[in-house]
Amino acid sequence: MRASWRPSKIGRFGVCALLAGGYGVAAIRPIADALRSRGNWVVSILGARESRLLILEDELRRASDVLYVATDDGSAGIKGNVLVPLATAFDEWSPDRLLAVGSLPMMRAVSDYASERRVPAVVSLNPIMLDGTGMCGACRVRVNDETHFACVDGPEFDAAGIDFDDLAARQLAFREFEQVAWGGSIA
Q1: How many angstroms separate the CA atoms of 50 and 72, rounded?
Q2: Do residues 97 and 133 touch, judged by C-beta distance below 8 A?
Q3: How far apart are alpha carbons 53 and 111 in whole angstroms?
Q4: Spatial distance between the Cα atoms of 67 and 164, rounded to a whole number of angstroms
Q5: What is the CATH number of the domain that holds 133?
Q6: Does some domain include residue 7?
Q7: b or e along 63-88 (b: 16 or more beta carbons within 10 Å of the residue's beta carbon)?
Q8: The domain containing residue 50 runs over which residues?
Q9: Best label site of 62, 64, 179, 182, fewest CB within 10 Å?
């Protein structure tokens, strides 16, 4: 049987930029602690649509050397998505490694940004998972043209190898059933 999950790679990388969107901050905070304990400089970026959706900001601030906050509507921190403070972080700190946890569009944008700057990036994927053993195949993800299962091979993967188009399509597979579950009907 395969391992049930793979822990985050914690090493001495230099300057690490950690990007958290929404609930992604819950995963980023302990990683920030671990990276700092290994002597890395941790620049964290917390993003949300609006200030009322920001969570664990104080905890992430304590776990980081530098914290940027961004909201789409500008109600807290920098106005814009996480790429706005990420550009500032690159100007000021020149990150050696990126880690993003959040929405699929955010992680794709971070992956593209890292690729343009030739900086390694890791994304933590959260596709639909049913059994957590890899047997159901619901959490399939294409990485470097190979099939992996996020529940047992991840959740973290090298961002450069992710087939984000396939992953985005798979995320929509159960949309009609979700609508029914929320009281709607299948159109």
Answers
A1: 6
A2: no
A3: 23
A4: 28
A5: 3.40.50.80
A6: no
A7: bbebbbbbbeeeebbbeebbbbbbeb
A8: 15-181
A9: 182
